[in-house]
Specification:
single chain, alpha/beta, 2 domains, 9 helices, about 35% helix, globular
Length: about 280
């Protein structure tokens, strides 16, 4: 499996599949490249590159947990492009990945052909943010991944109605692993929680609307789950007003975040890729 070395010495895992225009996929806060499993088969004719952030998935864990921030992770993404010899990409960012995309539109706009944001915007609802803070770093209380899948299905039945247990079982495997002695472990560094709490108390938070405005000259697509607790319908409308050419879709029966194989999500992604082309 391919890795590349960052300028601060970490080996980060990535996948690189297909031939064609490059699409860089960046996952959510605690997630990894596996989250794009359902998207990959639907984009023939594209080179799909996914990166595991530092401390997540198959990537190395840094000594300094405070390097878990979107500035450093954005630089890691640019260093991956440099490693692959790719000048410009379209970037698909899920949640945390979308924040990185907005940052890169200001920090390295010359590297972007276009951006797709998956259920994230420049305003993050407090309820969804608190939900994330509550679970990050917590050891899952499940005996195995089958039990974890059942808990996911039960817990998300309101926001993801009708999703079969088999899909949640796959998702559980993306998120956690079964320990040899029993129980389920995290596929990310639990110190990510310490970084979130530590960074919340240091300095001023970035103006996300200012970062969003960095996308004004780029083709933009935004995917929102109809039941999202992170990207509200009101913020979604503000984003469309701020970027009138935005390709925006709301995916029914989905919360945070859509799987990206839904017809509405695929339609937006394909429309954005066609606009870039």
């Amino acid at each position: 499996m391919p890795d590349f070395q960052t300028t601060d010495g970490l080996l980060l895992h990535f996948t690189d599949e297909g031939i064609g225009p490059a699409l860089l996929c960046l996952a959510g806060l605690t997630r990894n490249s596996d989250d794009f499993t359902y998207l990959r088969p639907h984009l023939p004719g594209h080179r799909i590159i996914c990166m595991d952030y530092r401390g997540r998935g198959r990537s190395d864990t840094p000594d300094d947990h405070m390097t878990y921030n979107i500035d450093r992770e954005g630089r890691d993404a640019i260093e991956l492009l440099d490693h692959l010899g790719i000048g410009k990409v379209t970037l698909l960012g899920t949640s945390r990945g979308g924040l990185i995309a907005m940052l890169l539109s200001v920090m390295a706009p010359e590297r972007l052909n276009g951006v797709i944001l998956n259920d994230i915007g420049p305003e993050v609802d407090e309820d969804g943010l608190q939900r994330i803070i509550d679970y990050v770093g917590a050891e899952p209380p499940f005996a195995d991944l089958d039990m974890a899948a059942a808990a996911l299905k039960a817990g998300f039945e309101q926001s993801f109605p009708g999703v079969p247990l088999s899909r949640w079982r796959e998702q559980a495997g993306f998120m956690w692993y079964e320990k040899p002695g029993g129980g389920v472990g995290l596929r990310y560094d639990a110190r990510l929680r310490d970084a979130l709490i530590g960074q919340a108390g240091v300095g001023d938070a970035p103006d996300l609307w200012q970062l969003f405005d960095g996308l004004k000259d780029l083709p933009l697509g935004v995917i929102r789950g109809a039941h999202s607790d992170l990207l509200s319908a009101e913020t979604f409308e503000k984003m469309a007003a701020r970027h009138p050419d935005m390709i925006g879709v709301t995916v029914p029966d989905r919360g945070h975040v859509p799987f990206l194989d839904e017809p509405e999500a695929l339609g937006a992604i394909r429309a954005l890729l066609a606009r870039v082309a």
